């Protein structure tokens, strides 16, 4: 099932629509042979969000879309003129000189792209940046498609981190055990908890760097990230319990995440009803953990572009209430990132996202 294909007629007189159409057609041509052999059904892009029974009943109908009469005349100006850009957010981030910037949100909203864009913009300003990801599906190297002075890139690989942790425990703790005890330790290290501990340690190790440079983290989709935060919170509670009422000073990773001077959490979403609702739920979960999101980023917005396509223009109009909800109800600060004609791959196009 290939969803949300732009009709060819929309691409005939608009540069943005033509670019989207060409991008989609190229993707269709490059479908792997093993998938080409499967039955296919293609669903065209609708002018409305697929929320509610009336909208869902229209999903699989191939009736041609006709522009609705509207008082909002088509123009070559954006519908979000004057709204804050990603560059404005980066101005405030850069002013601190260092710190942890975490990009969070559901899968498919463009966290990896926005994380790369923030990191590239900071590095472009001459600041030292470590861009990292805890998302197994992220492709940072492909998104960057190049190198930049002041920018290093890494990935928290759960399998590699687990193996590193296992070897460390076996070489240290295992060195004092007899054969039976060593076998029991090996069995214990095969439990699912081992991976959680290993990933948490890697996460803690990387965020400590934020005391001297910028660390920009592209996190895994919401569920995985909340599990990591659960581990971080559990570690904090255990350290606090062991320290008791002593006057010794200590700092845990959770304390760093809760400190808005050290950590800025950016929630990435799309200007659509369901992604905004899910982002709001994520924000509520973070607040229950004592972590206050610093800003929202509305990604891939058609309302932030200039288009004369009737269908895209209607979708842009549909974005406005969701943008208003973010601006007035959910976010203390926010930015809108436009949909680009070309996919944001490579340093220059990532810099264009901040423009």
Give the class from helix and strand content and strand pairing: alpha/beta
- Mean pLDDT over the residues: 84
State the domain count: 2
Radius of gyration: 23 Å
Which percent range describes the beta-strand content? 5-15%
CATH topology (fold) name of the largest domain: Rossmann fold
What multimeric state do the chains show? Answer: single chain
Instruction: Give helix % range.
Output: 40-55%
Q: Tell me, briefly, the overall form.
A: globular
Number of helices: 14
N-to-C CA distance: 35 Å
Instruction: Name the CATH homologous superfamily of the largest domain.
Output: P-loop containing nucleotide triphosphate hydrolases
Uncertain spans, ≥5 residues at pLDDT below 50? 68-73
- Widest β-sheet, arrangement of strands: 5-4-6-3-7-8-9
Query: Main β-sheet: number of strands, strand sense, barrel status?
Result: 7 strands, parallel
CATH architecture of the largest domain: 3-Layer(aba) Sandwich
Assigned CATH class of the largest domain: Alpha Beta
Tally of strands: 9
